[in-house]
Write a structure and sequence with these properties.
Number of domains: 2
Strand content: 25-35%
Distance between the termini: 56 Å
Number of strands: 17
Structural class: alpha+beta
Strand order of the largest sheet: 2-3-1-4
Oligomer: single chain
Helix content: 10-25%
Shape: globular
Radius of gyration: 25 Å
C-alpha cells in the first residue's frame, strides 16, 4: 500500500492482489416444448446440488418456442443422470439472465377475487385501449407513431402503426401505483411468477384456437410518439414514387424493420405514472371487438392478493 496512507489503529495493512477467477464452462440441455418440463428438471438438479444453479432459456425454431436448461460444468460432479456428451456448450463469455421482476396488476376488487377463485383472466388489445371509457387510461395512439428519417439533407416523416394482431396483458412495475387522478388501490394482484403465468396463458390461447406467431414482453418507455433515425432515404423514395402501384404493406414492413419492436412498448409521456410492463402475443387470427378471456388453472401458483391499509380515493 502507498506509504502516505495512514490506516486507523484498529485496522492492519494487507497486500492486495488482482484475482481473476476462471470462467466455468456453461452447458445447455434439452429442447422442451413445455416450460413446466424444463422447470421440473431444473428443480431436480437444484435439489441434487443443494443450490439454485440451473436457469431456463427459451429459443425459437421456425414457429415453435422451445425451452432448455442452462448450468455450469461442476453440476456433472454432483449428478449422474446427465452426461456431458448429451449436452452442448453455451459459447458466451459470462452467464447472463434477463430478470423479470415481481409485477402488479390493478383492477376493480370484484375482478381480483373472481380471478383468484375461477382463474378467469381478461386480456386486452390495442384497439380496446384506444376505446376505453376511462379517459385517464385511454390512449388514442396506442400502437401508432411517427418515423422521422434523416439522410443527409433529405428528411421525411411517415406515420405508421402496428397492433391489429396483438393480444396483451398490462401490468405495473410499481406496487404503489396511482392513476392520474391520484386514486390509490388498497387491494391488487402481485404476480410473483410471471414466466409461469405467461406460459399458462399461452397454452390457453392455443387451446382457444389462436395461432401465435411470437411473444414479446418488457417494460414500456415513455416519450413523444416519435422515432428519429438516420436511414437510407433511397428505399423510401422508391416506395413513395410508385404512385400507380403503391403498397402500404411494403412501406409498413420497411418502417417496422427500422424501428423494430419498440413501437409495441412506446407510450406517451402523460402515461408515465403507470410504469407499465406488458406481455404481448402476436397472432394470425385476432377477431376484432371480441373480449378475450382465458382460464388459468390454479392462479395461486403464480399470483397472490395484496391488501394494504391505505384507503382508495384521491390524495
Amino acid at each position: 500500500m502507498a506509504n502516505n496512507i495512514k490506516l486507523p489503529e484498529e485496522l492492519q495493512a494487507v497486500e492486495y492482489i488482482e484475482y481473476h477467477p476462471k470462467q466455468e464452462t456453461i452447458y445447455v440441455f434439452g429442447q422442451f416444448e413445455r416450460y413446466r418440463d424444463a422447470l421440473e428438471l431444473a428443480k431436480r438438479i437444484n435439489l441434487s446440488c443443494d443450490e439454485t444453479i440451473c436457469g431456463i432459456n427459451s429459443f425459437q425454431i421456425q414457429d415453435n418456442v422451445l425451452f432448455c436448461i442452462v448450468f455450469p460444468e461442476h453440476v456433472f460432479e454432483k449428478i449422474d443422470y446427465l452426461k456431458k456428451e448429451e449436452c452442448n456448450i453455451l459459447n458466451i463469455p459470462t452467464i447472463f439472465n434477463y430478470n423479470i421482476p415481481i409485477l402488479y396488476r390493478f383492477i376493480e376488487e370484484k375482478y381480483i377475487d373472481s380471478f383468484m377463485e375461477t382463474g378467469v383472466l381478461k386480456l386486452t388489445t390495442f384497439d380496446k385501449c384506444k376505446k376505453l371509457e376511462d379517459e385517464n387510461r385511454k390512449d388514442d395512439k396506442e400502437g401508432r407513431s411517427d418515423l422521422y428519417g434523416y439522410d443527409g439533407q433529405y428528411k421525411f416523416q411517415i406515420g405508421f402503426g402496428v397492433g391489429s394482431d396483438v393480444i396483451m396483458l398490462c401490468t405495473s412495475l410499481c406496487s404503489d401505483y396511482q392513476d392520474s387522478n391520484g386514486k390509490i388501490y388498497k387491494k391488487y394482484i402481485e404476480i410473483f411468477d410471471i414466466q409461469g403465468l405467461l406460459f399458462s396463458i399461452t397454452e390457453q390461447l392455443k387451446k382457444d384456437g389462436y395461432s401465435i406467431k411470437s411473444i414479446l414482453f418488457g417494460p414500456c418507455f415513455y416519450s413523444k410518439k416519435e422515432f428519429h433515425k438516420e436511414v437510407s432515404a433511397e428505399k423510401f423514395r422508391e416506395k413513395l414514387e410508385k404512385k400507380q402501384s403503391f403498397d402500404w404493406d411494403e412501406l409498413t414492413k420497411l418502417t417496422h424493420s427500422i424501428t423494430g419492436n419498440d413501437i409495441y412498448f412506446q407510450k406517451p409521456l402523460d402515461k408515465r405514472n403507470e410504469n407499465e410492463f406488458r406481455i404481448i402475443w402476436i397472432v394470425d387470427n385476432l377477431k376484432k371487438d371480441n373480449d378475450i378471456f382465458v382460464t388459468i388453472p390454479n392462479p395461486q401458483k403464480f399470483c397472490r392478493i395484496i391488501e394494504t391499509k391505505c384507503s382508495t380515493g384521491n390524495l
